[in-house]
Structure formats: C-alpha cells, structure tokens
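hey m, so remember when u said the tokens were messed up on ur end? i reran from scratch. heres the input so u can diff it against urs
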Amino acid sequence: MRLFALVAVVMVAFAANSVLNRLAVGGGWIDAMDFALIRVMSGAVALAVLVLVRDRRLSVGGPHRLAGVLSLTLYLAGFSAAYRTLDAGAGALILFGGVQVTMFAGALLAREPMPPLRWIGALVALSGLAWMFWPGNGASVPLLAGALMAAAAVGWGIYSLVGRRAGEPLRATAANFLLAVPVCAVIALLARSGATITGAGIVLALVSGIVTSGMGYALWYAVLPRLAASVAAVAQLTVPVIAVAGGALFLSEPVPLALIAACALVLGGVALSVLARR
C-alpha cells in the first residue's frame, strides 16, 4: 500500500507540471521562457542538494551529456511555450503519446526486435494523436501549440533514450538540469516577449521546478527499482488522465468527448506496446 501511495504521488506530480505551467503561462502571469528558466534553475538546485546529501559529491561530467542537455532543453522550452494556448490535459496527452512514439522510433533505429502487438500499439497511439490535430473535431488543438508540445515530446523521448545508458539516473538528471540552466537562460534572453513577471508566476515556476520536477523525479527514481517494468509503464498511463482532470478542476477547461476518445486511443495504444514488451 505504501508503494502504491508513493507511485500515485509521483504520477500526480508529473501531471501537475502541465497544470502549473498552463496556469502560469496561459494566465499571463509569466513569460513561457522565463517559466522554463526558473523551473530548470530551481529543479537543478533541488536535485543537486539531493545528490550532495546522498553521495557527498556532484559531478556534471559523464557519457552522452551533450545529448541529454540539449534534449532536456528542447523539452523544457517546447513544453512551456505550448502552454500559452494549449489546455493542460491536451498538452499532457500530446507529450505522453509523442514520447512513446519517439521511443518507438528510437527502438526501430536501434534495430530492436518488434513484435506485431507493439507495431499495432504504436499505430493506435499515433492515430489518437493525429485525431487531436485533425481540424474540425472537438479534440483539435492549436497547430503551433501542438507542434511545440510535439517538439517537447521528441526532446523528452530522446532524453529518455539517452537516460537508459546512464548508470545513476538521479545523478545524471541533476547534471543535465545544471548544464541546461545557461542554455535556457540564453533562450529566455533571446525570446523575451516583454510579458510581465508576477510573483504568482514565479511561485508557480518554483513549485514546478523544486516540487513536481526535482522532488518528483527523485521520488520516481527511488521507487522505480521496486516496480516491475510493465507496472512502471502502466502507472505512467495515468498521467494524462490526471492532467485532464486537473485542468478541468483547477482551470475550468472543457473535456469534450473527442478528447476522451483521443485519450483512449493514445493510452490504449501505449498499453498494447507495454504488453508487447512484457
């Protein structure tokens, strides 16, 4: 029961990133890139403190560090920018489905064996994403915002593929966050929109960086060794659903039937892929 509660807390934290970002950026309380910068800075500090407390040392070197930093930056920038106009639930669904499709493509490039069920699952998930982008239906999303979130999904998918080779994921994540700070700072400086930075926007970005990102990742890496791979993958299926519920509850976002159908297709396709891998 305790393990279940910890996993539930992590999934809520991951989903909360979408709600916090949408609330701050979509509400005009802070610029998207400023939110991303504060998020990565505060997350880097939180993760670095955790690693120092545990290991008494912190190293930012390591294999594939450049790929990890650049893909993390792509995720952070695309994620924040998309939430200028994208609903929290729809954004989480695009992110989650896009990450799975990206990792599927990575597995193809690596020539991993692909059972038929995994092919079917990937196609079903992709059809759900295509439905969201298809004009004229209730699940359609703004094209630019959807493209930005899809870019974020590619970034996080690559980050996950690179992270498979990391010997110590928490230490690697802390290093990637620290090195992504100057990159995000340059992007934030170049992309300044003149939007006002409010205290509420800063607080929401800090919560996203320290609590739902830094502490969320740390807790996830702590419980992950105690979970079967299939259980961990299925648990993550709840993240878009929680984000849809959070958007409806805290942001009064509509939940059209078409969005529910697209959600079912994406999550059903991912579930098929999980069963195939198992």
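this time it looks ok to me. The longest helix spans residues 2-26. if urs says something different then somethings off w ur setup not the seq
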